[in-house]
């Protein structure tokens, strides 16, 4: 039970928990051991549980296994299966099936796998391997799990760089690397009792002579060196002299250095001159060279030389041979070696010893030895003294310093050194000499140039110390942190703008390149890393002499915040790939397609704006389909571009139009909104008054107006790489076959016809200059190019001039109507009853229209009265004449007429009983009865003076001796009239009066019908009964359907329909439908078609940004034109921003809020089937200038673009209100029944851009009602409201209550009153979890209700009403299995918070 108590009262809720014991699951059939052979296909284990559909798990050696390529597991109700596939030796194990919910319940069995017999399938084979190559032995066993060992001779081999041992699926391999002579021998593979052997033999590689012997010339007494080189080491060969083998001695040395063989002969004499050879017998290689020995003589000996210390000196001799380099120079009998100062030069026959700078120690005795001859001389050197020594110097960094020295002799080749390195003239040093004075200037001295400077004049030196004080760097480097690929700049400032320094990274000089550059700008020193990478992180130093400054560069990794997405576009469209990074302004990024980096071009536009990287692929085609990648260092993202191919579904067709007419070309594409370019004579067409280009989704149309001959030609529609063309032919409208004058007799149809150059063009017919309208008299027919005017039932009044007008062309002809003349008149006739008589008349024309009348009433042809025509003669024959046939007969044809009388001599028969007047209701039976004086005579029945047609089934005529009857079975309203019965010369008359029934005629949908001339008009009335006879009147005159072909009357059960198939202007008027004694009327109006016409044009608008704009136009036309709106020739559709308004003839385009991008030319197009009219105006959007701070800016009030809409929600379900508000600095407030709603856990208020939203997390009864969204700024306030309706479902609550009562009665019977109280007391918002085991603090739970109350209002203090706790969701009966968790929930509302 849960009880909630507060000062307003208490409430409680009860529920019962039923805990059922679980059924123990056990195995009724355990797993059984199984055996299999290696490489068997499958083994299956099977077990059974006592309960069906029990979940189990399978284990192998207590490790869980799962279904896959190796194992298949499935269950069939109580039976569980495990199949082990493709048996291997490692499948030998214990398999266990375990109940998932109780892992202590299990059954196990073992799978025994019997290995296959071990056999050698493939033995080792002998191999021969080239020297230094690898040799491989392979053995194949029948079992994959068998292991073996390899032996070389008796030595067991183990894996190493020399021996590679491997095995896979029964194949065992030994690979011997870099085969040498010592690797040759027998190799063996042993596996158990199986053994196989094979031998390895090395194949020697061929030796190649790389450097042969060449001829050699040496001087007598020198050392001769002969040398050969081979492709391999340690080649065995022999040196030969004139074919005799040479052996080593004290004077002859044989040297082998790997691939090189040398022969050295010391103290060569003329006897050593010979042909020397080196022979390799094993490879059949031999090479030879000739050794020649020269004897040298001194031609010009050395001469004594004197020199000043520090100047140049040369000793020279001439010998008998040219270019001999094997000479030796001695100084005081000590062998000289060349140096930078002393050089030995052989030039032709001259041998020189050159001193670039003499030292005093160079004085002495010199000897030149060439072979066995020599020559000597003396060198005298005059010493030099330093008269004035250098002085120590002190300077600041970047200053110039000069050292001066004076010596005893001029012209000395002096040397300046710093730190034992010779100083050469350059940008940092300047060396000068003037007579005996010598100077060194150190330019821009730096700290690193501090130290000992020395002057050398021969062997005499003078030195001084340079001290450089610091202060070279005035502004140090600062630490820099950048994102990867961004530009990093390290900057410092030096004291001397001309000072030079160096950049170091981690103490090492920086390797400058295109990416890493240094800049000097006056005293500013800058290191720029254009595109940073993680490897650029480190400590950077700038050093000027001994001054240095250091800073750290940190590079943060750039990540992708918003990755690329696949794009699908249609051909010709632009594809845009966008990617968002975590850092702005990165550099070095690449866009790649198919491995090729993309560059900015007409095709591709690459944009980097802040963190957003964009690639635009313009004018897409199928070749652009690919994967596009963005790369930034190691960072990359990919997306695919799919290009849908455009197809021209409907091509433009050739068109022919008239001068000043309108022509149109239409085409359809496979995709929406694809731009189409229209070309004519190589130029692109643009929208204008004459040329209109329309596009709506897949349809594209070109309309050309007011055509002239220059508009004729080929028009091309271009869509991407596709195009289609059509030819426009402009023709003048003319009459090609004029009409002829017509002469017809009266009553005949006169037809004028003429032919024009084009099909179905509008035309006009005139009679004596007056336009002819379609009517029963005049019929206008158009069949293709043929135009006809038919004049029906001509009379002499129709004689006139008729004119046909078509376009600018017209033709005329005359109609002559000749009168009909009667050439033979009617004559009076006398007849007796039952005679046959004939009236006959002759006229002057055949084929005329005529009629016969009796006593002024037209006679219709019947079985007794027959009307005949034969050429010019017309006759009326009456058979079986009776007294009633007597009277005046008249023949009428046009204006001609003739009259005669028929006299019938009848017997005198008297009526003993005459027929009597009858008054009867419609649909009843009427009977006329009379008696005559003579029996069995023939009588004639007439109605309104005309003989009745007795063939109609409703009429029954009977005669019984003296009595004659006429029976009308079902009387109709049309049966009313005067009835006569004629017997001999006697006539009896009576009147039949028919009263209509009270037929109810339903009200028609419209009392007035308006149709266009030549269109169909339909009148419909519905009555309350079926089988009702109706009558139709036009302007009070009954319509004779037998005479009017265009009028059709049908009855469909209770519906009565009158249809005029083709209306004329004369058909306009009042139409009356009569049924029974009731009637109903409708009006018909006939409109003449009119093309659309703009009565009031649009006017240009200039509107401030953010304000609405309105274009209005007044349009007329019959039928009512359809109106379309365009912006820069692109069709507009109604939406949030754009509204189409229509009031009568006025059409309005309303733009709710305009911005600079809305500035355009707007067009209104009115169109019906008879033409098109347009009106155009320009919209200019004014952007307000920046307002100065001292004058307040005018703020426009907010505008609600999309108001909130009413909604409904079930109790406990969420609800949401959304609206769109546009304006500056708008504050949004929400109200419920005039109380402001605040943000809370129950009410979530959000606002993003123009959209604002109120979301109610759970709806309860107190939440229903009106909600208002109010938008406020400095310009004003707007609001919109909507209603939330609570959707209460009683059925579910009743079902829950009924179930709970049944459970309570079952488990805990109690008084009925308590049960009712418990079930009906529970009503609102709380959640309590069973056993109070939730992680939430239930002491604070009581506050939830009050918080919910307070969250609905501005503050908790404004809530004054106390609410007794009431449950909206009560506890429910729960049934769980033993060991399971049970959860109870309830919801309540209360204020103040209750105690739970």
TrEMBL record:
Key words of the record: Cytoplasm, Disulfide bond, Immunoglobulin domain, Nucleus, Phosphoprotein, Repeat
Main localization category: cytoplasm
Pfam families: I-set (PF07679)
Residue span, Ig-like domain: 23-114, 206-292, 464-554, 731-816, 819-889, 906-993, 1092-1180, 1197-1285
Localization of this protein: Cytoplasm; Nucleus
Gene3D superfamilies, sorted: Immunoglobulins (2.60.40.10)
Cellular component, GO annotation: cytoplasm; nucleus
Family label: Belongs to the protein kinase superfamily. CAMK Ser/Thr protein kinase family.
Protein name: Ig-like domain-containing protein
